[in-house]
Amino acid sequence: GNDGYKLWLEYQKVSAPRLVRQYNEAISGIVVKSQSATLKIAESELRLALERMLDKKISPLNIAAHNAILLGTPESSAEIKTMLSSGNFSLGDEGFVIQSRRINNMTTTVIAANKDIGVLYGVFAFIRLIQTHQPINNLSIINVPKIKNRVLNHWDNLNRSVERGYAGISIWNWHTLPGYIDQRYIDYARANASIGINGTVLTNVNANSQVLTQEYLVKVKALADAFRPYGIKVYLTAKFSAPIELGGIKTADPLNQEVINWWKNKCREIYSLIPDFGGFLVKANSEGQPGPQGYGKTHADGANMFAGALEPYGGIVMWRAFVYDVRVQKEGEHFTEGSGGEHTQTIASGDRFKQAYAEFKPLDGQFKKNVLLQVKNGPIDFQPREPFSPLFGAMPQTPLMMEFQITQEYVGQSTTLAYLAPMFKECLDADTYSKGKGSTVARVIDGTIDGHTVSGIAGVANIGNDRNWTGHLFGQANWYAFGRLAWNYDLSPETIAEEWIRQTFNNNDAFINPVKRIMSASREAVINYMTPLGLNHIMGTSHHYGPAPWVKNAGRADWNPVYYHKADSVGIGFDRTKTGSDALAQYAPEVRQQWSDMNTCDYRYLLWFHHVPWNYKINTGSTLWNELCYRYQSGVDTVRWMQQTWDGLDNLVDKERFQHVRMLLGIQEQEAVWWRNACLLYFQTFSKMPFPPGFEEPY
Ligand code: GCU
């Protein structure tokens, strides 16, 4: 059996004789001269991996010997110093080079970087070559990450529940910290380092100020110490009202001197424990969280206060742009005076889509240098498919960070196999046209389009204490893919899927190819059976699992599915053109034009932007109603095909993982049918049209 704990770091024995010979010939041992924690880890990880994969003892070598692997930096190795100064490698602080070269007339594989962490990244890249059965002679690889801050966001609460977590409870065991360093923390760090993730926000965006107390900060320090050698910085979420809750101050007004001092002192305290603390992630004036608007101040005032306190230590603020109608509060929640609830501005009333842009665009240019604005990929909330947020490209003076959701809140949670790399990639590749053609979202967030030196990308983690970390084994692929794309957004989802399959399962083509096809089809299948043609946010209220397009009393208008699909006797969809909310006006003219005409609008986004009559012939050639029926049915069909395909692989994978995936696909098939039936039968009450000929009737 295999419970999936080892993730993509299985390091399975290579058995093909040709490869065993080749690898053994190329590797005699490891040379590394340094006592730094990171280089020691690089050496021991490489040794562990090679010993398992090649099934032989790997000896440490003292001098460059024939077929040695030489690891290091200019500081640790004279040979590497010579090599790196002789070429123009531009490796920066995290990049690495892997090169086969002759040193002292011996064939050597050099894994080199300017800094220790680059060497560790290089080691993982080298290990991956063997894991995926690539040749390792004549290597000449230079690899530098495109985005600087590659961060996981854990929505973990201090009581270990995880907001939108579907894989058990939080892996942070606050009770046994700081004294107990669970092996899981180390394996978490190894897994992240292996894909280049270099930051982790430990706590939920719906923050608890308790984590900023000394009692918790020493626990945070213990985690930071464990993660440091793996190049991972620790961040915390900052609750805006902490000065009130912890400091006994009467206000949290960001321009109040007492408040400013409180945060300055807090930062001094944090940095005295954790000298490389990354900074804060802040959710303010959103879904009931307190923020600067509660004091008549702007998001910029709020963000800059934190930025000022972090500045002396090099920390950053990741200020979230996920805001919508600040006046309305969650049921059962009460605002205390000055905490944000009394703010009465409605900026984009009528269309939640428009709110973030309306609030933040006017603040462009007002943020301090160490503030990044963290923007969700789409304008609403992590739907199976969204158009890119109109903020990308619209705030050239502010570094914008991407926020993806790896955890599958709206994508079937952990009973659903949905490979999300195509979703991440679709957004990163989207063209904002902010500086003409080719101004992709990726180039906005990597800072190249507007010349920012700081850049970032965040993924809301799907990690919990389940034995396999992510609930659904294939959730691991989404964690993996996030890291790989954060490092290099030019990788294709197929390449990443193949890497992941080879490292996680095996290198057998008879297994790899069908699994790759399953993964490639999976997200589109989910879109089809949940929210085809640009439908969105019709999931069950609050839990977001399963269909509930009929809900109209969720507590506030913009939580109601009916608000999003607007089905009526005429048609379905949200008119965001000039005749409707005109949200399209927030995009560059070229983008607007792409979507503004119902006849030419890509069918995948159609109902995001148009209220389309049921019997209207859309550009797929069918009437809207028929197309909707076909899409829902094809989603179900694809899941059935995924089941059959997986069932055919039973002798190519261990029983435990085979059964795990098989049973979950069984549940997913039922869910797909449930979605199709619920949505079509409900929408049919408006369309009053029959199901198309040959259609499998919902029961
Ligand atoms: C979604 C999610 C919330 C989360 C919020 C956020 O709305 O359902 O649980 O807090 O996003 O990103 O802040």
Key traits:
TIM Barrel; binds alpha-D-glucopyranuronic acid; 8-stranded parallel barrel; Chitobiase, domain 2; GH; Alpha-d-glucuronidase, C-terminal Domain; hydrolase; EC 3.2.1.131; alpha/beta; 6-stranded mixed sheet; 699 residues; 20 helices; Xylan alpha-1,2-glucuronidase
Your description of this structure?
- The structure is a single chain.
- The chain has 699 residues and is of the alpha/beta class.
- It folds into three domains: 17-143, Chitobiase/beta-hexosaminidase domain 2-like (Chitobiase, domain 2), CATH 3.30.379.10; 149-266 and 278-308 and 316-365 and 377-495, Alpha-Beta Barrel (TIM Barrel); 527-687, Alpha-d-glucuronidase, C-terminal Domain (Alpha-Beta Complex), CATH 3.90.1330.
- Helix content is 36%, strand content 11%.
- It contains 20 helices and 16 strands.
- It has helices at 17-26, 37-54, 78-86, 116-131, 183-195, 214-227, 242-245, 257-273, 299-310, 355-360, 421-429, 441-445, 475-487, 493-504, 509-530, 561-565, 589-596, 606-609, 624-647, 655-687, and strands at 29-32, 59-61, 68-72, 96-103, 106-112, 140-143, 149-153, 199-201, 233-237, 279-282, 316-320, 371-376, 400-405, 456-460, 571-572, 612-613.
- The protein has an eight-stranded parallel beta barrel with strand order 7-8-9-10-11-12-13-14. Strands 2-1-3-5-4-6 form a six-stranded mixed sheet, sandwiched between helices.
- Helix 15 (509-530) runs antiparallel to helix 19.
- The longest helix is centred in the C-terminal third of the chain and has 33 residues, at 655-687.
- The protein is globular.
- Residues 328-347 have low confidence and may be disordered.
- The structure holds alpha-D-glucopyranuronic acid.
- The site of alpha-D-glucopyranuronic acid (GCU) has 9 residues, from loops.
